[in-house]
Amino acid sequence: MKCIYLLPLLAASSHAFVDCTRDVLTALYTCADALQPHSDHYVNSVPRIGSPGVHNAICYGDYPTCNDLQRLVGTPAANCDVSLAKGYYVNIGRDLLSPCASPMPPRTKDVELCTGTGLTLSEYSSKLYTDVHRGNDNEHFLYNNTDRTLRAKSNGQCVEAIMTPWPGAVHTVPCNGNSEMQQWTIEKERVSALRGGLCLKAEPASRGAVVGLTSCNFGGQSPAYFVECAAAKPTYVTVTSQGKRLSEYYSNLFANAPANNFNELFVWDQPNKMFKVASNNQCLDAFKDANGKVQVHTWACDVNNGNQKWNFNPTTKTLEHATHTGQCLDADPTYADRHAQMWACTPNNANQQWSIDTFTA
User: Fold this and answer.
1) Are residues 176 and 275 in the same domain?
2) Where is the signal peptide (predicted)?
3) Tens place of pLDDT for every residue, the chain, 361 residues?
């Protein structure tokens, strides 16, 4: 089944239709015929001209019969409309054409893909997993800028999406550049399937986790999605006292046995004296309640909020609040619910001694 790119199609009633000249239409249809020979359904082939893969292929010279159309980029002649179906049209200059990069990037690019916690995407026996970085071919993939395939260097096969049963899965199979299930986009901190609106995702705190698919949620942040390893990513830390890790749950704080989940992972912003937890993207926050007692929870991060400032003393191991001085983060292991609290700083108090360690899955 061929992919139909309907995103650039607009209702004719919302825009004054501008006719294209004969020369422009000839260039357009000649290019479309090269992309999809023996087809009279231009509603399918014309919008493909504006897709990222086809655009790159034109720029690489794979479709020389599209050169006349590509030369129209930025010209007044390209600012015209062509009807593809009743009530729908595309504007050639706006919806289909864009300049070629100069210089063009390599057709194929060697990429390594990582979760936000630093685990690497790795192929083994045609399955995809997370692993620590080992520097082998299993964690190298060749991304093709034209057919959008992602080929594992370890077995020479391409990553393919399996859409059913929901939410789908991934594996590697022999490469087929025409298969929509093997076409991927690497952008916006996601590796997304061209079809289906799904992205690669794995449990980011567990090495050996099977990689699968999930909704992309481009507006949100999660260390579970994959990005290019070279991209700058935060370093996560754990905050531990007496073998128990500080853990967020519904904005409350507890000291629990290590579980290697989002709730235990913090970004330590040392210059701003802040700790942001990965589970809800809120910051460690201490405040005075109506009775004047200092309480601790997580709250929306605000660099100007004095309740979110903390001083860690590497000698005494205390996390003392920078605003509510004399108050330290405290976790008493005798509490049945294991809640963390604020308590008057006391020298040599094991309940107030914390270690801050870089997280390694």
Assistant:
1) no
2) 1-16
3) 333 333 344 443 455 889 999 999 999 999 999 988 766 678 888 999 998 889 999 999 999 999 999 999 999 999 999 998 888 889 999 999 999 999 998 899 999 999 877 789 999 999 999 998 888 999 999 999 899 999 999 999 999 999 888 888 999 999 998 899 999 999 888 999 988 789 999 987 778 999 999 999 887 667 789 989 877 467 789 999 999 999 999 999 999 999 988 899 999 999 899 999 988 989 999 999 999 999 999 999 999 999 999 999 999 999 999 999 999 999 999 999 999 999 999 999 999 999 999 987 6
Q: Is residue 101 part of a domain?
A: no
At 269 the three-state DSSP class reads: strand
> CA 16, CA 81: separation in Å to the nearest integer?
9
How far apart, in whole angstroms, are the C-alpha atoms of residue 36 and residue 96?
A: 16
Q: Provide the number of structural domains found in the chain.
A: 3
Q: Is 113 found in the same domain as 60?
A: no
* Residue 198 tokens, joined: 């799904």
What pTM was computed for the model?
0.59
As given in the structure block, the two tokens for residue 105 are 């990037």
Determine, yes or no, domain membership for 103: no
Which CATH number characterizes residue 323's domain?
A: 2.80.10.50
Residue 57 sits in which domain range?
10-96
User: Is 5 inside any structural domain?
Assistant: no
